[in-house]
Amino acid sequence: ELTLGVWSQITMEGGRKGFLFTAIMTSGAGFLSSFSPNYLSLMALRFLVGIGLGGGPVLGSWFLEFVPAPSRGTWMVVLLAFWTVGTIFEASLAWLVMPKFGWRWLLALSSVPSLLLLLFYAITPESPRFLCMKGRTMEAVDVLGKMARLNGAELPSGKLVSDKNIELDEVSESATLLNGTAKAAKEEENDNIKEDEGSDFGGFKSVSKLLSPKLLRATLLLWMAFFGNAFSYYGIVLLTSELSNGNRICAKQEVESVHSNNSSLYKNVFISSFAEIPGSFVSIMIVDRIGRRLSMASMLLTSCVFLFPLVFSRTEILTRISLFGARLCISASFTIVYIYAPEIYPTSVRTTGIGVASSVGRIGGILCPLVAVALVHNCHQTTAILLFELVVFLSGVAVMFFPFEMKGRRLNDTEADMH
Predict the structure, then answer these.
(1) Which terminus in the chain has less CB density within 10 A, N or C?
(2) Distance (Å, rounded) from C-alpha 231 to C-alpha 392?
(3) Are 40 and 318 spatial neighbours (Cβ–Cβ below 8 Å)?
């Protein structure tokens, strides 16, 4: 999923076509992997699945542009709650399918949900913001017209003006409407499209903008927040099985226990996955009330509180309660950071910004089993818990230094709009 930065650039250049490629690669490679004749082919196909999954988060950037500012946080939580639904569904599927039918059936059935994106692609509208930024104003008007009819409203009379050399107002509050004719709008669209061709050296220009003076602080803090959230989230998921038997099992004994009690492993993962449901409700309640920064900080620091008892004792009941509470808080924080990431960047670099930030988060997810979980396997449980505590605490402090609070504010289209 480190390829998310690439997917975000594809989406910036091709709009919703990026979603189509994501769905094809994820579902196609996922289904084919169930027929793998050997381990090498299985790893190659799962690698392709990972590349496809890397494009998933850019859907949030697209969805964000259709939601009004006052309820933007709430609706983004609703969208991201389907991650929780998918987690519970996959845990349930593994629990039911693996013991009786094996991993091939599990992989084949797990590829089916990605097909839904292919089925809905034909009726998925293009982002009006994206179309305006590309100078395709007539297409943007068509999309806005369909949205207006769906909501029983009418568009103001006039012409939608797009000029990449001026600051754009938010489309929902409105892209500037001036008197004119459809012919003039079409001529302007063609001129802007020509201007756009060859103007950006791949994705390098967009990536470099993330480190511009106005965005540097926000970008670095966002990378830290994503790293901390991903490291902690995937760490807690892994620790659910690693510490499910408290402090009684270590090293070789632990491996034997996992292989001899698969049903217990599925049960623990299934139960802990439900922690994300109240996490979603908590996100909905606080994200548009107390703001993004305070919401993330409170959830991260509360997660520290839940993990702290495990430093001293790891009985089975205490471990389950602590990890359940910690996962609730981390999932809420992770949801909110995915809301905040596309909000903080202007339209011109939004998908690139969230793509690069999420890729940094994936690095945290990769390092987590290599560092923290390895400590548990070597009977250094206390050190592992303290490491998680440190990462979560530093992330909680970092988010309080974000330069912008986006609660109720309109999205920016250019760096000049940011203040």
Answers:
(1) C
(2) 9
(3) no
The tens digit of pLDDT for each residue in 67-102 reads 777 777 778 788 878 878 888 888 888 888 888 888
CA neighbor of 121 nearest in space, from 41, 23, 45 = 23
Residue 133 burial (CB < 10 Å; 0-12/13-18/19+)?
A: buried
Residue with tokens 């392709």: 48
**Helix axes 39-53 and 17-33, enclosed angle (nearest 10):** 160
Which domains are present in the chain? 4-122+206-417 (1.20.1250.20), 126-199 (no CATH)
| pLDDT tens digits, one per residue of 168-220 | 444 344 444 434 434 444 444 444 444 444 444 445 666 778 888 888 898 99
Q: How many helices (H) and strands (E) does the chain have?
A: 21, 2
Strand partners, 178: 159
Question: Distance between CA 382 and CA 304 in Å, rounded?
Answer: 14
d(CA 415, CA 355): 18
Tokens of 56: 């998933």
Helices within 54-181 (DSSP H only):
58-64, 72-101, 103-110, 115-120, 128-133, 137-150, 171-174
- The residue among 99, 112, 144 whose CA lies nearest residue 34 is 112
What does the buried/exposed string (b/e) look like for 151-166 if buried means 16 or more CB atoms within 10 Å of the residue's CB? eeeeeeeebbbbebee
Structure tokens at 193: 């499209």
DSSP 158: S
Q: Where are the beta strands (DSSP E) in 146-275?
A: 159-160, 177-178
